[in-house]
């Protein structure tokens, strides 16, 4: 008999939720449904009801009564906070089946009394969207520590010598650099005509690339690590996100937050952890502790304050003591966006007052949930001392009832010098309109990745091909009802288009005008190469897999603008303007920065303008590329979906995203011989617990890939939605399966019809 148990899990205990004995709870599991192949982060989810029993009323803290008080510890509130999902586990016959998250949706009343609770159980991958919410990339605190001096010397150095980046305790070499991508200048190379503007040839007349027209790029692996660093409940395994997987690891994001050149008119500095003393005061109070988890608030040397509210109040007190009387501005940022600002301060000031009863400073402001940081602006070299206090108000608990308001305070001091040189950091420049979850979704769509949370709550990320390859063969023949089944067509789409969302830059637009198709875009099926495909693919609608990134077509320059192979230079360049040659932001741009010298390519010297009458010549600089390498060899991997002619080599690079990560799945799944098979099975709980979505299901002579599994735990019936992988299993697979089956007492073999042994099968 199959029995289901549901638990809310805590650090050291389990709360078992009682279930109705008459409700058929169904669990739907699917990793990549053929009907929605672009959907990611959705393994399973289900809504059901549980009784409003004495035990469940205690677990859900009598949710029907909003007047119940609160305990002093926010984690033990008497009120159940339905705005947050909780860790949960499903067990089959008291053994772990699935881990996930539980959400309380409603309490259902009868005769004005609670009768049942409606809850939803989500697969563990939901914690990605749940944790990240609407936060954008620029809110990642670790990116604020990736700094550089905005000077010509610093930028020229980073054009050819990438700097290392440290996230947490890990350092990643050559991860921050300036590629040859311009925001406004249309570059040329002409060794003869020295009158042309933006001429990279070093004529010495200061017409080369202006260093101020360049912007930095950051290795995307450091962004992944910054996500893990900030959100401690999100940890990825290294199956795909690793330093040896070069198509991923060598990928960079161009930090192009705004049109045109980087704004340096308002020098701004963020106070760093090293600028602060250790906290003093009530550091043992949850939410004020130096190393609190995000559940209570996290402090990182006071440079960043991460408040998580549970019906308590937080206030800030800031006092500033400059070394001179020059004007300065104070800014408090929430999630790296301006939250509070006071301009034109001079001398000692008290811009934020947590007491609320002083004539100086703004009235106190209750701080909503978010990550806060402190910033100053000034145009002079000034030393600053600061005193910062954090106050928390919460109710106390007296004999089970809410008592008087209690107050806890910690304080810091900070000192730092405002330099004359302009400093910038990655969080200021990274595209700030893309959500972290959309960035991750984009990577998953590019590389056709799957995410499964293991029992240690680590997110295992694999390509779909590797995910299926790591599964096992599971023979379900004896548990399957073959007296009644359904076989359906598998072709829900007439075509599938794989493309980037951002194709608005000038060279990509020109490509579409000339070629008649979007740059880097693949369309399945390729009707141009298979005229017979028209015979059966008109059923269904067109479908799109859209990646939320910009995709440039880069340009290899010709000497003297003469488009002849003999005049090709070794300079490849990117141009971030639209068809009217106006600077654009576009979507976040991903690309491979390459030093041509690493492939044995000699680079021409180019002129970098550093002042109206000054320039510097350099002969080592990173060029942008859509392919992992500039020259064709055995490795033709690139981030186009279609095998476009490579911008540098002039030959097609076939190792596209489609060929490398989608082709096998699409070809097998949407082959005319493929079908969706629907069976009902009564699978023993020990097998059902171990059945994975990447396992190959064997039923008689057929082997299938799982599309969907729906289990009703009241009836014990599992509905299998399967896709045939091939017409027949290999001989060895069949022999092993039948050898295993005939050894069981419930199988009989009529030897006049069938003989089975380890080496042969005769019918």
Structure summary:
The protein is mainly beta and 763 residues long.
3D structure, described in words:
- The chain has 763 residues and is mainly beta.
- It contains twelve helices and 45 strands.
- Strands 1, 2, 3, 4, 5, 6, 7, 29, 30, 40, 41, 42 and 43 form a 13-stranded mixed β-sheet that branches.
- Strand 44 and strand 45 form a beta hairpin.
- The protein is flat, with a radius of gyration of 31 Å.
- The relative contact order is 0.13.
List keywords for this structure.
763 residues; mainly beta; 13-stranded mixed β-sheet; 13% helix; flat; disordered C terminus
What does the secondary structure layout of this molecule look like, with pairings?
Blueprint: E1 4-9, E2 14-17, E3 26-29, E4 44-51, H1 54-59, E5 86-92, E6 95-110, E7 113-123, H2 126-132, E8 147-149, H3 152-160, E9 163-167, E10 170-177, E11 181-182, E12 209-210, E13 217-219, H4 220-230, H5 246-249, E14 252-254, E15 268-270, E16 280-281, E17 298-299, E18 304-307, E19 313-322, E20 328-334, E21 337-345, E22 349-352, E23 370-377, E24 382-398, E25 401-418, E26 423-425, H6 426-429, H7 436-447, E27 449-453, E28 459-463, H8 464-469, E29 473-475, E30 480-489, E31 493-502, H9 506-515, E32 522-524, E33 541-550, E34 555-558, E35 568-575, E36 589-594, E37 606-611, E38 614-618, E39 623-625, H10 657-669, E40 675-681, H11 685-690, E41 696-699, E42 702-712, E43 718-726, H12 731-742, E44 755-756, E45 761-762
Parallel strand pairs: 11-35, 12-37, 29-41, 31-33
Antiparallel strand pairs: 1-2, 1-5, 3-4, 3-42, 4-7, 5-6, 6-7, 8-26, 9-10, 10-13, 13-14, 14-36, 15-23, 16-25, 17-18, 18-23, 19-22, 19-24, 20-21, 20-23, 24-25, 27-28, 30-40, 31-32, 34-35, 36-39, 37-38, 40-43, 41-42, 42-43, 44-45
């Amino acid at each position: 008999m199959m029995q289901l148990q549901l638990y809310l899990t805590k650090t050291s205990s389990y709360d078992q939720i009682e279930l109705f004995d008459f409700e058929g709870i169904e669990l739907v599991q699917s990793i990549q449904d053929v009907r929605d192949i672009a959907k990611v982060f959705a393994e399973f989810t289900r809504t059901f009801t549980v009784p409003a029993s004495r035990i469940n009323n205690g677990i859900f803290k009598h949710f029907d009564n909003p007047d119940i008080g609160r305990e002093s510890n926010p984690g033990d509130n008497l009120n159940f906070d339905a705005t947050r999902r909780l860790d949960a586990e499903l067990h089959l016959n008291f053994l772990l089946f699935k881990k996930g998250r539980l959400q309380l949706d409603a309490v259902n009343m009868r005769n004005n009394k609670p009768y049942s609770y409606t809850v939803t159980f989500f697969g563990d991958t939901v914690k990605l969207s749940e944790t990240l919410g609407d936060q954008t990339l620029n809110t990642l605190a670790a990116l604020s520590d990736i700094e550089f001096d905005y000077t010509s010397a610093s930028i020229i150095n980073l054009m050819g010598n990438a700097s290392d980046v440290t996230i947490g305790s890990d350092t990643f070499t050559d991860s921050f650099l300036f590629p040859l991508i311009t925001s406004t200048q249309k570059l040329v190379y002409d060794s003869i005509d020295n009158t042309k503007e933006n001429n990279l040839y070093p004529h010495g007349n200061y017409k080369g690339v202006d260093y101020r027209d360049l912007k930095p790029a950051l290795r995307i692996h450091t962004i992944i690590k910054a996500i893990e660093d900030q959100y401690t409940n999100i940890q990825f395994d290294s199956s795909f996100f690793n330093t040896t997987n070069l198509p991923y690891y060598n990928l960079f994001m161009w930090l192009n937050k705004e049109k045109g050149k980087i704004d340096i008119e308002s020098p701004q500095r963020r106070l760093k952890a090293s600028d602060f003393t250790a906290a003093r005061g009530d550091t043992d109070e949850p939410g004020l502790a130096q190393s609190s988890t995000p559940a209570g608030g996290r402090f990182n040397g006071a440079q960043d304050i991460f408040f998580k509210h549970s019906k308590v109040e937080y206030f800030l007190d800031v006092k500033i003591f400059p070394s001179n009387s020059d004007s300065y501005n104070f800014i408090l940022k929430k999630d790296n966006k301006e939250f509070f600002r006071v301009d034109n301060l001079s001398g000692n000031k008290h811009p934020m007052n947590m007491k609320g009863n002083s004539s100086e400073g703004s009235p106190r402001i209750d701080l909503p949930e978010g990550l806060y940081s402190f910033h100053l602006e000034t145009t002079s070299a000034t030393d600053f001392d600061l005193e910062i206090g954090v106050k928390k108000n919460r109710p106390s608990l007296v004999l089970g009832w809410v008592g008087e308001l209690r107050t806890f305070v910690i304080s810091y001091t900070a000192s730092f010098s405002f330099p004359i040189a302009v400093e910038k950091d990655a969080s200021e420049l990274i595209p700030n309109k893309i959500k972290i979850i959309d960035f991750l979704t984009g990577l998953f769509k590019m590389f056709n990745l799957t995410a499964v949370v293991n029992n240690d709550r680590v997110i295992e990320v694999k390509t779909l091909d590797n995910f299926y390859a790591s599964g096992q063969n599971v023979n379900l023949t004896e548990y399957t009802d073959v007296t009644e089944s359904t076989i359906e067509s598998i072709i829900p789409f007439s075509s599938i288009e794989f493309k980037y969302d951002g194709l608005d830059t000038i060279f990509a637009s020109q490509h579409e005008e000339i070629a008649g198709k979007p740059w880097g875009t693949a369309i399945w099926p390729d009707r141009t190469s298979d005229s017979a495909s028209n015979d059966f693919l008109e059923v269904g609608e067109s479908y799109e897999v859209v990646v939320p990134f910009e995709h440039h077509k880069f340009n290899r320059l010709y000497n003297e603008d003469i488009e002849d192979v003999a005049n090709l230079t070794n300079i490849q360049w990117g141009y971030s303007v639209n068809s009217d040659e106006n600077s654009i932001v576009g979507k976040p741009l991903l690309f491979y920065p390459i030093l041509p010298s690493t492939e044995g390519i000699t680079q021409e010297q180019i002129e970098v303008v550093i002042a109206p009458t000054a320039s510097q010549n350099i002969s080592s600089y990173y060029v942008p590329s859509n392919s992992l390498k500039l020259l064709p060899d055995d490795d033709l991997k690139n981030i186009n979906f279609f095998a476009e002619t490579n911008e540098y080599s002039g030959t097609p690079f076939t190792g596209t995203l489609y060929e490398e990560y989608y082709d096998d799945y699409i070809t097998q799944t949407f082959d005319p011989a493929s079908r969706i098979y629907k069976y009902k099975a009564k699978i023993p709980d020990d097998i059902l617990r171990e059945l994975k979505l990447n396992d190959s299901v064997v039923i008689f002579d057929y082997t299938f890939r799982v599309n969907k599994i729906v289990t009703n735990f009241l009836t014990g019936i599992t509905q299998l939605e399967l896709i045939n992988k091939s017409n027949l299993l290999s001989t060895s697979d069949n022999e092993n399966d039948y050898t295993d089956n005939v050894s069981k007492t419930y199988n009989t073999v009529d030897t006049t019809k069938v003989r089975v042994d380890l080496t042969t099968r005769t019918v």
